[in-house]
Design a protein that fits this description.
By secondary structure, the protein is α/β, with parallel strands linked by helices. It is built from nine helices and twelve strands. β3, α5 and β4 form a beta-alpha-beta unit. The protein is elongated and about 100 Å long.
Length: about 300
Amino acid sequence: MHVEDLRWFAVLAETEHLTAAATALGTSQPNLSRSLRRVEDGFGVPLFEREHRGLRLNPYGRIVLEAARAGIAAVDAAQQRIDALLDPQSGTVRLAFLHSVASSLLPDLLKAYRAAGPNAEFALRQGAGHDIIHDLESGDAEIGIISPRPDADRFGWYLLEQQRLALHVPPGHPLASRRRVELAAAADEPFVGLQPGFGFRRISDELCRAAGFTPRLAFEATDLTTIDSLVGAGLGVAVLPSSAVRGGDSGAVAVPLAGVQARREIGMIWRLQASLTPAAERFRTFVRSRPVTST
């Protein structure tokens, strides 16, 4: 029994006449009879009462007709979704991204892409770097926007943006008036940072370690905007990419960090061992045509 058999059964159930149903389906009566036999054999019961003037749906048949209509609708809906995914012009791009690009890089990218392909749809997932990796590995997302760069043996990478890092300090802080600051100057300050497991937490920890100290954390947050707000409230200082909290009104002062290594790289990733849908491939091609930006 195939889906097409159920379609034919539904037409036959509506007409209750073999000749009329065969005509409507554009097939022969023998073909329709064989199809009906497959459906009845599949359920193990007759679905019609055979009468002199035609067929009459029996109680078993009414149960199967209800299920057949629901099943046909579900299969058609699935096919429509698959067709949409396969259409590079109007298909759905499954994209996972960091919290910290939600107010800056991502909106700019989506706006530019929609201008080039206005029919594109996006299924967006927001999370930490390790969540994005999981989304790509599970197939819940095809493209990720992430930092830092993950395993090069498993994921393709295209650099999107290099962000200068700054030491964010409360207003009126002794370091707030400096044009640039060495991170070591904040070694004795309480820090506000991300929770362990976040990609930027690893970056900030490595910067502090290179400066010769381990930061004393007053609070561990789950997003960069919260960190900036708590610094503005005087809870401590923080290393942040200033462009990731643009437009904020926390009052925190961003003092650029001295040192050429004080950068955060954000890039687009995809699984090397997985094929992208046409919609995702079109989006990747578009993104890779754009120049790397520095903020």
